[in-house]
Amino acid sequence: MNKIIVNLLLISISILHAQDHAKKETAKEVKIEQTFEYRFAQDLKQTPDSEARLNQWYKDAKFGAFIHFGVYSTLEGEYKGRGSEHRYSEWIQVSAKIPASEYYEVASRFNPSEFNAEEWVKVFKNAGMRYVVLTSKHHDGFAMFKSNVSNYNIVDATPFKRDVVKELSEACHRNGLKFGVYYSHAQDWDNPNAPLLNNKASIFDLHPELPTNFKADFDKYIKEKSLPQVEELVKNYDIDLIWFDTPAQMTYERAKLFSDMVQKYRPNCLINSRIIHNGKSKIEAANLPLFDYVSIGDKEVPTKKLPLYVESPDCVSSSFGYKTKGNVYYHTEKEMINRMVHTVCTGGNYLLNNGPMGNGALDPEAIRLYGVIGDWMKMNGESIIATLPNPFASRPVWGDVSTNKNGDVLYLHVLEVPKSGIVNLPDLSVEVESANYLASDKTVIFKQDGKKVKLIVSKDDSNVVDLVIKIMLKGPVEK
Ligand code: H79
């Protein structure tokens, strides 16, 4: 196609769609303004220690597997006809008000004989994931590792008797993946001294044997269970990351006990912000020495570049733990890729959860969805792994942008192919050398007029989940 035809095409199509476009852009920008900023004062700065730890592997990894696996996996969101109306199956003990003594019986039948760490890791690796975070103890208090602190663990309290944390950590490292553990350090439904964070069940529902005047002693819980179990994890396992959650009543002093413990044994181990901040709380500068990166809210996708490195804990389905009872839905592959792309282009990592089944096999629908992402990653992973975020001031209306580390390659993630077929770039002061589809290497027609760059994409591509265009620049883009 010669230049005149390209120009005519561009002019006519853009006039037709200019108004519509402008409206959409304004709506999107307003939405962006309303979301994340309030939690992150712009002068927050990653500590040099955290920066160094994050640079070791985490910032390049971008994509990881989150796994919620435990006693609750066997109940699939319902117990004796109760609890299935609640969103998260890992919350079944609270949502069905199961006393701890009764939950023990469920634990005593937990026998995930199909568990095969090597097979799990193959699925994660094939999805393009670079790290894995497994629940080593969720709020129910049950440890998925051999613990001498409490025999309420998978080796001592179940017929399975195998250490899942150990087997998975070894399989991850054998296959070149980093390994992390989730550890709920404040809540513990097995231990009445730990705070309960919900309005569905009381401590007396879970522990009917307690005297009515029972007073919880949280520091006793920390001293006797959660801190020594964290010590076991960092001492006995090869752990690259520890993922704390729901820090109810976590003062700076209490949280520091945990970060000091991690530092003592594993100075390179990353720590997430939920050691002290819940997913939605405002980040305090004074707390920055306690953690390395910020876990934003569960299933939240960042909308704007933030002064600290973040991770989005997302899920293939509505529940983190495996759930078949009551309402449950799975994301479409398009939704998940959109969420991953926006998270990475905003400057964060995407931790995508699956809930294995009670028998220890992975959820078949999670395997399918991970497989679809894996297929996409095989063609387009270059636009995700080891990239830098969108260098432009705002997110384009058609999708998002990442760059290579030098800043001289742009990856345009066209998540919604504009009806006009024209992709407008934000103002660019560098000259474009070439534009190609990343997956097929086919040339994309473009026109640069000063700072304005327009690309014409084919209508045939509008059903692609994320059409990635690789743009080579003559020099680095200004940030
Ligand atoms: O581990 C996953 C969740 O179980 C955990 N964080 C992620 C990573 C988490 N803990 N608390 N919360 C999330 C938020 C609280 C949700 C609840 Fe509910 C709303 C608890 C009580 C009301 C879900 C819905 C359970 C009962 C109703």
Set down the secondary structure blueprint.
Elements: H1 3-33, H2 48-61, E1 63-67, H3 92-95, H4 100-108, H5 117-126, E2 131-137, H6 164-174, E3 178-183, H7 203-206, H8 218-236, E4 241-244, H9 252-265, E5 270-271, E6 294-295, E7 310-315, H10 333-346, E8 348-354, H11 364-380, E9 399-403, E10 409-414, E11 422-424, E12 432-437, E13 445-449, E14 452-456, E15 467-473
Parallel strand pairs: 1-2, 1-8, 2-3, 3-4, 4-5, 6-7, 7-8
Antiparallel strand pairs: 9-10, 10-15, 11-14, 12-15, 13-14
Helix pairs in contact: 5-6, 5-11, 8-9
Name the CATH architecture of the largest domain. Answer: Alpha-Beta Barrel
Strand/helix succession = HHEHHHEHEHHEHEEEHEHEEEEEEE
Oligomer: single chain
Cα Rg: 24 Å
Uncertain runs are 9-34
Could you explain how this protein is built, in words?
The protein has 479 residues and is of the alpha/beta class. It folds into 3 domains: 33 residues; 341 residues, TIM Barrel (Alpha-Beta Barrel); 75 residues, Golgi alpha-mannosidase II (Immunoglobulin-like, Sandwich). Helix content is 31%, strand content 16%. The protein is built from 11 helices and 15 strands. Strands 5-4-3-2-1-8-7-6 form an 8-stranded parallel sheet, with helices on both faces. A 4-stranded antiparallel sheet has the order 9-10-15-12, with helices on one face. α9 links the parallel β4 and β5. α5 crosses α6, α5 packs across α11 and α8 packs parallel to α9. It is globular. Bound molecules: ligand H79.
Short description:
It is built from eleven helices and 15 strands.
Key phrases:
Immunoglobulin-like, 8-stranded parallel β-sheet, binds ligand H79
